[in-house]
Write a structure and sequence with these properties.
mainly beta, four-stranded antiparallel sheet, 212 residues, 34% strand, four-stranded mixed sheet, 17 strands
Length: 212
Amino acid sequence: MYARNPDQRIVTLGVSGMLWNRSLVMYDVETRSYWSHLLGRAMSGPRRNTDLEQIPSTMTDWGAWKRRYPNTRVLWLPRSSRQYRRGFYQAPEQFVLGLAGVNPPRAWEFTQLSRHPVVNDQIDSKRVVAVFDPDTVTARLYSSELRGKILEFERDAKGFLDVQTRSLWDRITGECIAGQYKGAKLVPMPAIVSYRNTWLTFHPKTDFGSPR
């Protein structure tokens, strides 16, 4: 997901019908520049080398989302569209949770997250935690810093726990649902779910996170 106001100018984006490195290419109505949907960058046209700001988003199933946010407004897809199902992830080795905008880019493999659903990691000087919800096949990345403190996390059947206070956190929302920090939310990082091969095509120097 991206903000569509680079350089304080609104752009109206559409699907060009073309592919680049087997990945979708967008265009903007205003200048007919062509954008990589994975990079969020204009690759040709008057806006070439302009970047869209990436916004943290969640890729999860409808049931899990609706339970947490019952008043959500929904964009209905055309009837001809294929429905999104968890079966899409039947081959977890094909997918990663990837974070661009850091040097080098970082990614966590779904096969790793399936075995270790809570991964404490560090990117430069920033501490982060990658979490995975096996029931909904949802992978998210959060900052480990809260209220000036760095938290360490571990797995729990109902979510994940911080080691310091044993507070319970929701994997999908990053919100504390029980304990000392109840009501607090971890800051989500703009990591996305991608096909592994596609991610490496665009980010060949990716560093893969390791469980800690």
